[in-house]
Amino acid sequence: MTRSSTRLLPAAALALVAGIVIGSLVLPRDVEVESATLLSPGRPLPAFELVREDASPFTRADFEGDWSLVFFGFTHCPDICPATLETLAAVKRRLEREGDPVPRVLFASVDPERDDPGTIADYVRYFDPAFQGATGTPEAIQELTRKLGIISAKVWNEDGSAYTVDHSASVLLIGPDASLRAVFGTPHRVEPMARDLAAILEGRAVPAPPGGTG
Amino acid sequence: MRSPVVFLAALAAAVVLAALAGCQPDSPTGGIGIEDPWVRAVPPSASATAGYFVLENGSGEDLVLAAVTAAGIPRAEIHETTMADGVMRMRRLDSVTIPAGETATFAPGGRHLMLFADPLPAAGSSVTVELAFADGRVLAFEAPVRRGAD
Questions:
Q1: B31-146: which CATH number, 3.40.50.1470, 2.60.40.1890, 3.90.1150.10, 3.30.460.80?
Q2: A157 — contact with chain B (CB < 8 Å)?
Q3: Residue A178 belongs to some domain of the structure
Q4: ipTM value for the complex
Q5: Which end of chain A is more exposed for a tag (fewer CB within 10 A), N or C?
Q6: Can you give the pLDDT at residue B20?
Q7: In a mutagenesis test of the B interface, which of A71, A79, A109, A164 is the best target, namely the one with the most B β-carbons within 10 Å?
Q8: Is the pLDDT of residue A156 over 90?
Q9: What distance in Å separates the CA atoms of residue A109 and residue A69, rounded to the nearest whole number?
């Protein structure tokens, strides 16, 4: 090493530090995602066919080009389903207010016997006019949920007069490439979910270190 | 003929007194407090909704919540949502025991009142809920119907 390059070292170090400081102020920061499990690379969705309100099919291709949040539930569900949809509506309002990208929200029924396409569309629009609903044949729903790792099971009450549907309460994030990119587990909270979604959609998300606070 | 009349009058007076006593907040449900009661406003196409509240048992003795009724609601039950490995389950509870000095929370994602009606009460209205305890005590309160995110 020459004498002159040795003399340059402190200056280079200073420049490096200055660069880091300025960069951290100017460039968007990475966000450690705590409210969701990231899938990298994304897991491509299988082919499927659900039904929309106007009876047109909703297929894998309909996910292409946009980010989408998907929640499986049913309209006879009084607690978790409306609570989750209220949370997703609040997340959407928050993203809009912050000027962040906003994913589409799709509520897919795990109770196709009782939820016809019109019922489920009316139901979700109550929470946000832009929310979409989809249902399908019991076979199509079962196959799609199974492939996505969503569990659902019909459970009758003691006197056999009514049933409920036990189901996974996770919210799935589907990327514009129609692949599963993240899974938001319970409980769903507006603030961390909105922050993490904004980071993922803007490409600033990094997984939280194992054993973190999440 | 006189004694049955006297008896009936006494009985009527006793019923009125009992009813009046029931209206007083500190008796016979003394020490039982209800905080933040609300009923979730849900879409018109829904057939059931949930009611929430926090019950503080300051009565000095264990309480057993045995039944629930709600004005204008044909069927009301106590339910519990539980989460296991991310799967939501909901089951009816026969009763809930609230030990003396403790608080029972009925909240989204946990214990709640399950209210079945068609139509369900709209946002902005309220529902009169009556909790019936195993010892015969009844506690009534108004729960506003509103939307809510957690």
A1: 2.60.40.1890
A2: yes
A3: yes
A4: 0.73
A5: N
A6: 45
A7: A79
A8: no
A9: 14
